[in-house]
Amino acid sequence: MTYDKLIEIRPILEKQKLKRAIRDLGENFHLHHVHKVPHLTLVYNFRPRVPELEIMERVRDVARDFQTLPYEYDGWELKQSLTGHVLAFRIRPSPELKDFRAQMYAAIRSQIESAPGRLQFNEASSDNFWFHAAVAFKMGPSETSRLGPEVEGLRRIYLPSEAWRIPLLGNGKIVYEYDILMDKILTRSQALSRYFLSQDLDKYRKRNYIEVDSRAHVTSGGPKTWLISDTHFGHGNIISHCARPFLDAAEMDRILVNNWNNTVSSEDTTFCLGDVVWSGRVPGPDALERTRSVMNQLNGKIVIIRGNHDPSGLGEEGGFMERGGIKFELRHDPKNRSDSGAWLIHGDKHNNSLRQFPFISQKNRTVNVCAEVVRYRPLDVDVLVRLISEGRDFATLPQLEEAARIHDGAQVYSRPGQGGYGSRIHQTPRFQPRSIVRRRGTAVVDTPDGVLVVAGKRGIFLLPGGGARRHESRMDAAIRELREETGLITKRCKFLFSYDDPEDGRKIRNLHKVFLVEATGRPRRRSHESRYIGYWRPGSNLRLSISTRLLIERYLAWKAHLQA
User: Fold this and answer.
1) Fold of domain 436-563
2) I want to staple 311 with a disulfide (CB 3.0 to 4.6 A). Which of 3, 287, 358, 506 is the partner?
């Protein structure tokens, strides 16, 4: 039996972008062993001691405690391995990703046997584990010597990302894959299905506020001015070139139009800094007609600053504007900047050079308003002025303290869970996201020994239960979670009362429905969430969470009233 199993992170949005970079490196430097499929290994070669599905269930149980697992591609590094040098994209993991890998490995450690020589990597601490996406491996001295000054260009690569597909591989192929967004363990055919990818992209866009709801439309405060560049309507290849979260060009165009019209009113003016539509090899007159056809679908007055893909006769080469005491120059390509001394607002660079051309660079006095950088919708120029006045750099449109923060009447959305991490290299402060509201089904199991409670590794006891899945009632969630956490089977379930956690800034705010459950079986530890099982009664010294204590007190009051 071979040690052919691995657990990895499978890049989704940036997959083709990384594959193209890996292919170019292999060809340019004549590298013999290059990875055809980019990945981030979390657990190295092992063989399972239990069925593979049980291992993935442990991975799932740990991942459920994390709202998101962000990380950054940040340059490259060359390291010595057991079989030669490895050239890899450097990964800067977030604290969440580091904690997840450590907890996940601890959860499956007894279920696997690591290959000789790999145990040291699997056992590495969170701070010592090498997070990387390999480009080439088994590199000898002749290959490493060919990595001349040209490869230094890789150091400019900087791309924020996040994990949502975690596969278990056998012999290089997906066996099972846990999908964080859908909270589902996928088979190989499901993992490779465009249908499930489409479902994921929809959830990803909604969770990260990439799709603007019509309720976000701001109509008060009079006419406003907006900025955006490089929408590339109709350009399917831009999706892989710039890691855009769309399945195809039709879906991208639909969401770009909706985002625009749900942000910009008919009285507003939007400056579009080039490359509105991908014309390809379409003749000039037809390309111009296609661009105007797209513009006719968009709200407000549109001022075009012509880009390199726009047809001749469309828009101007550049322009100037002033807002909030700041003078701005508008150009598509930043290399065409004049010597006026004004701040430069530009497009063209997309998210391909975020170190050199981030969203805001105070040193260079530049602003990148490409669609990928400003979340696929026009940016309010008053918001831009406000952010510039903070005196900080931002890699992309920054994360704000709330899911929606108002700047002079314009809504700017945050990305929950990532909280500015993606802009850390550019000295952006890390903001805390607004509390995530969760519908929780909570079970009260009253036994002769006391009320059943469970605790994870921190030793803080909670009532069994958890968040309800989509289309799942909170009663069903309470029954399911009780079985998953303790193995108990519900015989009867009675609704007691509702309770909402207070709005006190906590990371997850639960909206409880509490049920009295009569169950069969013997409670036993089933997951990291139920590492400890206890029974609480008045006078018990168990450490309860604040909400759990309040819920039990309310239940006991209900019970006393019933018995009176």
Assistant:
1) Nucleoside Triphosphate Pyrophosphohydrolase (3.90.79)
2) 287
Q: 434 or 556: which carries more pLDDT confidence?
A: 556
Give domain 5-206's CATH number out of 3.40.50.2000, 3.90.1140.10, 1.25.40.20, 3.40.50.720. 3.90.1140.10
Enclosing H/E stretch for 81? strand 69-81
* Residue carrying structure tokens 């550049």: 318
Give the CA dihedral 185, 186, 191, 196, nearest 10 degrees: -90
Cβ-contact 399, 405 below 8 angstroms: no
The residue type found at 312 is S
3-state secondary structure of 13: coil
pLDDT tens digits for range 347-360 = 999 999 898 999 99
As a whole number of Å, the CA-based R_g of the chain is 27
For the chain, what's the residue count? 564
**What stretches of 109-235 show up as alpha helix (H) in DSSP?**
119-122, 141-145, 188-191, 194-207
Q: How many CB atoms lie within 10 A of CB 227?
A: 22
Q: Residues 91, 118: contact at Cβ < 8 Å?
A: no
The per-residue pLDDT for range 441-487, each reduced to its tens digit, is 999 999 999 999 998 877 889 999 998 887 788 899 999 999 989 98
Domain ranges in the chain?
5-206, 223-426, 436-563
107: left (phi over 0), alpha (psi -120 to 50) or beta: alpha
Tell me which residue of 107, 110, 89, 98 sits closest to 38, measured CA to CA. 89
